[in-house]
Specification:
The chain contains five helices and no strands. Helix content is 84%, strand content 0%.
Amino acid sequence: MNIKKVDLRKITFGMTSAIITGIAAIGTLFANPNGKMLVIPSLLIFAIADNIADTFSMHMYQDAELLKDKQVWVSTIFNYCARLFVSLIFILILVLFPTYLASILCIIFGLLLLTGVSYIIAKRKKSNPLLMIVEHVGLAVLVLALSTLFGNVIRSQIH
């Protein structure tokens, strides 16, 4: 498959949503190392129910943009599958590895995906890849930091 021919619009929304939501949930594991059994079901809910909601929203938006039905449905299916795939990879990593290592591996996996797609987008836009990578990965790291912080605050208030 030629990477230049892949229509990133079909996968970037779902993939990015799964990465950001996933690392936010996984970031809470740093605040609660015993929370793996709470995060895995949460990721499953994100992968299925929240994914349907986001995908349906994207589908409606594309219909409102008056895109052709086939184009809308192809994007809808690819978006759903991209998000499901990323979420299932996170879950697999969490199942296979100890909590702390799994958390780090999931975050690295998510950030590497964002880096790769950001690089491809920047090249296609003829933009500076480094600036786009810093922007996209920086936003993801901000989400991770805030979710970890809020997880710590909530945990300290409960205990």
